[in-house]
Every structure is written in structure tokens, then in C-alpha cells.
Design brief:
single chain, about 400 residues, alpha+beta, Immunoglobulin-like, seven-stranded mixed β-sheet, five-stranded antiparallel β-sheet, about 30% strand
């Protein structure tokens, strides 16, 4: 089922169930302590019927000091919680700052702001609950004076930093995606039916309006390929010592303040990460090149379609990527980056052109990307080949080397 339809179906199901639905209140409260670099987190469940067990799989280097009722036990990297009564609360502390490599961070708290992912703040939770029992979730921040927040969720009270969480299809709702807290500046607009917000620390010279204008220019073209694009997107930006690149997450992305909207090689990290948000797919050790190849191909293709680069510059860019891709030992290399992603772009280029020829211009790689996004989740090499050849109406010679490699393994 297309992702766009899932949102609609989920809303209809909630409406149809009405008062007869079995729900409980799930409340996340997060208190920020910049001096300690910590967040104090409370998770409260309240209702006539609650889940019988929650297994919280945490990172011992970042999550600590678990406490709660007698129904809580902690062993290794798992906290097991059996909620007691009609209302129960679990507490723990979270260390915000986290190094991605030796000298840069993918999460950071300073005395004035914090940038992190909410799905790291609230770790994965496996839930055992009665049939049909589902949560209704909110998240509240208790922030220092002068601080505010931005998340890719509906704001219930901006002054109180309170959000209504949603995750269609999930019975237990956990926050996901990037967030920013502190003395922040932001710009927002509705673009192609998507509520877009870009935000950064106020003391940094981040061109928020430029980024918003660039998204306004390019997102409508992406929506044509990925109509199930989330209804909200948050772009968080900050400078050093944050990691000097782009990182996507559900409904959101981080982009280092120094990253250009269009790079010197005529690709766009911002579009690349928006493609990841639009597809919501992830790969395996053998298929990560598909995920990254599609994102990087459209990082160039969307610039061409929107008039950002000429046809000649488009072809030059793909030729340069093909040359760089020759440095890659192969596509099945695990995490796809650098030359492997460039090589994957060459595959996408060839598949696009062969589909267009075989269908008389009636189809191209767009239909493949749309189908993968509609399915969501984990993509496999075999599934990618099957979808591409279904769109083409027959076998694709451009995929023969990959099929031979699959057959030989």
C-alpha cells in the first residue's frame, strides 16, 4: 500500500474506532540540564489498561540511572518494565553529546543549544500489550529560560514546548528524527503540502532563508516522484564541531552549516537527504548501494528538472561520477559511500535510460523509485531488479552484471 494511503487509512481507522478504541496515555517528559550535558527523561503510562511489559534496549554509555516502581529491572543493556496499576512512570538520564568520529559530533549540547535525535534520546522499546491496545503520545520539554524547541511533529503549545507524537501503523509511539533545542532561529513555510521548518542555533550565521527557498524550488519535483513524502520536515543545521555532512532521519535531516546547497561537483547534499526522507528505505550489506545510488542520482536529476543546472552540466556530472565510480571494487561492499555511491549512480543512469527506451518514453527510473518508496522498509537487490524489470516490461541488460553476481554468491 502506498505510504500516502497509509496515513489516510490510519486516520480513518482511528475515527472509525472512536470511543471504542482501547488507548492509554503515553507521556514523555524531558528536562534539559546544559551544565551537566544531560537530559532527565520520564516515561509515564496512564489508562485503564496498560502494556504488560516494555523492554527498553539502551546504550549503557548514554542511558543511565534507571529508576521506577517495583516492576522495573535492569540487566546489561536492557531495562524490563512491568507497569504497575493504572499509572506508572520510568525515569533515566541521557548523555546528549556523542562523537561520530575523533573530533566531530552527531549529537551535541552546549550552554546555549542542543542538537540530537529523539530516537536516540528515547531508545528502542519492545512492547507486549493486549490486542488492539494502542498509545496516544505526547512529548514535553522542560527547558532553561530563553530556550525553545523544534521537532518534526505537531506542536500543541509552542510556548510550553509540547508536541503530539504520531507514527502511523505503530501501536506504541516513540519519537523519531532530529530535534534542536536552545536559543534558536528558524524559518518555516508550507511547500508542496509539506510543513517545512529549517532551524539553527541563533548565534551561528546559517542562511536559513536560502535553505527554505532552495527547498521551495526543489521539493515539488521530489513530491512528483515520492507523493507519500511526510507531511512535516525539519532541517536542523549547526556548525563545528558538528559532523561536516548531512544525515537524514525520519521526517528530518541534519545539515552542517558549511555544506553548500549545491556542491562544486553539481550535486546537492540537501536534496540527497530529502530523497532519503521521501523513500524511507534502508539497505543491507548487499543493497545499501541502491539506497545511496537513488539518493545521489536524484540529487543531480532534480537540479536538472528544476532548471538548477543545464542538460550539458547534468551529463558532465554523471560522467564525472562514473569516472569516480571506477575506483570502487564493487557494489556489494556494505555501507555505500564515495566511489561506491558514484558507481551506483551509473547503474541508476543506465537503468533509467534502458527503461525509457523499452517503454517508448512512457516510464523511467521514477516509477522504480516510487515503487520502492511505497513499499518502504528494507530493500533487497532481488526486489530492486524485479521492480525495475516489471516497470520496463522485460529483462534489463543494464542489470545483467548484478544478476550474475547474485547468481554466483
Amino acid at each position: 500500500m502506498p505510504r500516502a494511503c497509509r496515513w489516510i487509512l490510519f486516520s480513518l481507522l482511528l475515527t472509525a474506532c472512536g470511543a471504542g478504541a482501547k488507548t492509554y496515555e503515553l507521556s514523555y517528559q524531558v528536562s534539559i540540564d546544559p551544565q551537566q550535558g544531560k537530559a532527565d527523561v520520564s516515561i509515564t503510562l496512564a489508562g485503564e489498561e496498560l502494556p504488560s511489559r516494555l523492554s527498553i534496549h539502551f546504550d549503557p554509555e548514554r542511558h543511565s540511572d534507571f529508576s521506577g516502581s517495583e516492576g522495573l529491572s535492569v540487566e546489561g543493556d536492557t531495562a524490563t518494565w512491568h507497569p504497575q496499576g493504572a499509572k506508572d512512570t520510568l525515569h533515566y538520564r541521557f548523555t546528549v553529546s556523542h562523537l561520530k568520529d575523533t573530533d566531530s559530533y552527531d549529537a551535541l549540547m552546549t550552554g546555549d543549544w542542543a542538537v540530537l535525535r529523539s530516537d536516540h534520546l528515547i531508545p528502542p522499546i519492545a512492547v507486549k500489550a493486549g490486542k488492539g491496545l494502542r498509545s496516544r503520545a505526547t512529548l514535553d520539554f522542560d527547558l532553561p529560560d530563553g530556550w525553545s524547541s523544534a521537532m518534526p511533529y505537531e506542536s500543541l503549545d509552542p510556548a510550553a514546548n509540547r508536541y503530539r507524537l504520531s507514527d502511523p501503523g505503530r501501536r506504541f509511539i516513540r519519537p523519531k528524527g532530529w530535534l534542536i533545542l536552545g536559543a534558536i532561529a528558524s524559518r518555516q513555510d508550507e511547500i508542496a503540502d509539506v510543513e517545512v521548518r529549517v532551524a539553527a542555533p541563533r548565534d551561528q550565521d546559517v542562511r536559513l532563508q536560502d535553505a527554505l527557498a532552495f527547498i521551495n524550488w526543489t521539493l515539488p519535483y521530489l513530491k512528483e516522484i515520492f507523493p507519500g513524502f511526510p507531511p512535516r520536515m525539519l532541517v536542523v543545521s549547526a556548525g563545528d564541531p558538528m559532523w561536516r555532512g548531512g544525515l537524514s532521519a525520519p521526517n528530518s535531516q541534519f545539515m552542517h552549516a558549511d555544506r553548500p546547497l549545491v556542491s562544486g561537483n553539481r550535486t546537492s547534499s540537501l536534496i540527497h537527504e530529502m530523497v532519503h526522507i521521501g523513500t524511507s528505505i534502508h539497505g543491507t550489506e548487499r543493497s545499501d548501494w541502491i539506497v545511496e545510488g537513488i539518493a545521489e542520482y536524484y540529487a543531480v536529476e532534480i537540479l536538472r528538472r528544476s532548471g538548477g543546472i543545464s542538460e550539458r552540466r547534468f551529463e558532465e556530472t554523471l560522467d564525472e561520477l562514473a569516472e569516480w565510480g571506477e575506483e570502487s571494487p564493487g557494489l556489494f561492499t556494505g555501507d555505500s559511500s564515495g566511489p561506491t555511491t558514484a558507481r551506483a549512480v551509473g547503474v541508476m543512469r543506465a537503468v533509467d535510460r534502458e527503461i525509457s527506451r523499452s517503454t517508448g518514453g512512457k516510464a523511467n527510473l521514477d516509477q522504480v523509485a516510487t515503487a520502492l518508496a511505497n513499499e518502504g522498509g528494507k530493500v533487497t537487490v532481488a526486489n530492486f531488479i524485479a521492480i525495475a524489470e516489471r516497470v520496463a516490461g522485460g529483462s534489463l541488460q543494464s542489470l545483467d552484471p548484478i544478476k550474475r553476481q547474485l547468481a554466483g554468491e
